[in-house]
Structure formats: structure tokens, C-alpha cells
């Protein structure tokens, strides 16, 4: 393992920012720490980097106990939201600076910087100063300055937060490309779920200083283990109620609605328990004709429709006030219901996921 943390804890007075976290990261893996503000993701990154000392627990890097090791001895590369480029230096000089500090010979520096500029596809700006570059170019230079000395591990803390949407999306693909080409281990911090889903081999979702769930982007999106995971990763429609019945398919009573759900052993719920049914917006269909047999059906009123390029999102409300979202592909030949119109919504039983109710969870 490239990085291991064992029962890592960080306490600030009465506030526990990180609570007995265990995590292992393999060589060459791209792992994203995802979560809302205050979830502990940046605290965990800072403990791994050595910028903060743990209250208890251990940090192991490349098989060596690094818990008390200074940051500059850990062999890590770091990239932050603040580009931290030196304005009086050219792009070439900014990238070369870490190599100069390490005492590398001039000819080697020139060769290595030229290689990295080619890798990030910015050879044509080598003699410019940072202020003459776009935000995306500056972030790529910041990344180049990190990778120029060949660290085996790169830590990135919200590096794209200052960029606009288009530049951010472009940089996500750029970082993913560099990760594939370099084969380095990357630990990335973000609160942006789309960023995590786009870039990661594995997402570590954090909540209140602990790991809520971890797995591939597909696992966290399609198979969340908790209500918090279901709600934080992607858009969600949640029905909470009590389970009734027996067998593999049971009924959840949520207000006026009685919904058939598949009973999964890993959900750790059964008849008589409070549970939550998750339906993703792309699985919630608006009826425009006969409704297929074996589906759940609820009635709602269309509140609004938003076009998001290739998809359309319909925002709806049921009779008991539950807010729902349905998403369909944007097609010019498809008629759309009018605002205020009553509609019937349906989904297949297998398109929902059953979760244990969480009394501490409150949908924002």
C-alpha cells in the first residue's frame, strides 16, 4: 500500500474533526475524499501530508511510519486551490524552482521542465509570467511544478474550486489523463460530487469525521449503503415509511403511498422497521400512456421543467408535499406536461433501492 492510516483522530478542543479513521490506498490509485464542509476530508489530507499532527493514530507512507515525519521528508507532491505561482518568475522558472531547490544540474532541469511542459501541452507559454495566463493554464502550471520532481504520491485539495464550470470540466479530464500517463497515486479532496464521479477510481465519502461509505463511483451511485450516501451522491427521490409483508417483495407505506420494494439482506431492515426507498430521477418515469404492469405508481403535480442541454428535469410535488425529480433525455419530438398539470409517475420495483432509515439524517 502507498498510503495507510490507522485509527487516525484529530481533536480541536471539544470538536473531533476526524474520528478513528482507517484507510488504505493502493499504488497508482486515484482516490477522492468527498463530503460536505466539516466532514473531515481536508483534515485527513492535512494529516497525511504532515501539515497537521494527529491527536492519535498512525500514518504510513510507502511502508514507513510517517506520523512524526516532517512534510518535506514524506516524498509527496501537493496541489491546492491557490496556485501559489511566483509572479516575478516565468512559467519555465516556476516549474524549475523545485528542481533547483533539490540541487539538480542546469542541463537536467532544462530537460525535465521541457518534458513536463510537453506533457501538460503548454510548451508555447514557457516564457510568459503567470499573470498572462488563464486560470486553467495557471492550475496546469501548478500541477506541472508538482509532478516535475516525480513524486510517487500527489495530494490535491480542492484544486479546481476557483475555476468556472467549463474550465473545471476541462481540467478534470486533464488531471485524469495525467494520472493515467504518469501512473502516480493521487489523493484528491472535493465537495463536488460530479467531480468525484468523473475522476475517481474510488470515492471515500465522509460525514462528521468518519468514512460513511467507500467504493467505485458506480457503487456509490447505484448501490449506496445509507440514506446520506444516496442523497449526497447524485440526485435522489426518497420515500420513508414502515415495511409490511413477507417474502422477497414487501410493501413500504409512505403517507398515502404504498410501494412495493425488493427486500435485500444487506439493507438490514425487515417488516415492521422504518426504511427509505431511493429512486434516481432517471428511473422515475412520467406516464404518457398505459403504465406497465408490476410498477409503483404515485400521483404528483408538475411544478417546473428545466432544460439542461441533453436532459430535461421535471420538478414535482405529491399530494402529501413530497418533492420529486424526474429526468428524461431531451428530445424535440417528445411532448412535455404543462406546469401545474397532474401526472402519474411510475418506476419498476427493481429500479429502486431499499435503505435503513437514519434518524440523524435531514435532507437539505
SSE layout and pairing:
Blueprint: E1 3-12, E2 15-25, E3 30-34, H1 41-49, E4 56-61, E5 64-65, E6 76-80, H2 91-101, H3 106-119, H4 135-147, E7 153-157, H5 165-182, E8 185-190, H6 193-199, E9 202-207, E10 210-215, H7 217-222, H8 227-232, E11 237-244, E12 249-254, E13 257-262, E14 274-279, E15 285-286, E16 295-308, E17 311-318, E18 323-329, E19 342-348, E20 352-356
Parallel strand pairs: 3-8, 3-9, 6-7, 7-8
Antiparallel strand pairs: 1-2, 1-4, 4-5, 9-10, 11-12, 11-14, 12-13, 14-20, 15-19, 16-17, 16-19, 17-18
Instruction: Characterize the main sheet.
Output: 6 strands, mixed
* Global outline: globular
N-to-C SSE string, H for helix and E for strand: EEEHEEEHHHEHEHEEHHEEEEEEEEEE
Spans where pLDDT lies below 50 across 5 or more residues? none
Percent of residues in beta strands: 35-45%
Radius of gyration: 25 Å
Helix content, binned percent: 10-25%
Fourth CATH level, the homologous superfamily of the largest domain: P-loop containing nucleotide triphosphate hydrolases
Catalytic activity: ATP + H2O + polyamine-[polyamine-binding protein]Side 1 = ADP + phosphate + polyamineSide 2 + [polyamine-binding protein]Side 1
Family: Belongs to the ABC transporter superfamily. Spermidine/putrescine importer (TC 3.A.1.11.1) family.
Function: Part of the ABC transporter complex PotABCD involved in spermidine/putrescine import. Responsible for energy coupling to the transport system.
Keywords: ATP-binding, Cell membrane, Membrane, Nucleotide-binding, Translocase, Transport
